[in-house]
Amino acid sequence: MKLLVTFSRKGCKLPLIAHTVMKTGVLINVERAYIESMEGEVLIDVPDKDAALVSDTMKEAGARVKIMEDSVIRDESECVDCGACISVCPQDVLSFDDDWRLNIDGKKCILCGKCVIACPHNALSLLQ
What we know:
Layout: E1 2-8, H1 16-24, E2 29-35, E3 39-45, H2 51-60, E4 64-68, E5 72-74, E6 94-96, E7 102-104, H3 114-118, E8 124-126
Antiparallel strand pairs: 1-3, 1-4, 2-3, 5-8, 6-7
């Protein structure tokens, strides 16, 4: 399960991921991270069965955690299934089905936003 974790240096004094791994024993896969001097945002992937434990541990350390179930949102009324988004996606989230309709596998998404920028009809957005 993907979790979007945001934190600030003021609210979270611990090395967040290391602390969480040590306390829970759950291995964390970091899929994307933006870390600045005073704040950061990390998209992590953890086993579904351990998501609540990881989330609670990070919250106790001062982070904000959001479960990411569907990352890419498609506006069906705007999407023309052109496929402009497919080639720019680094995670193969987007593909065509047998009828050449756009498919989205949101579990693979790392919230990079490249598909949103590439869409000529503004039919895609990121859930955050």
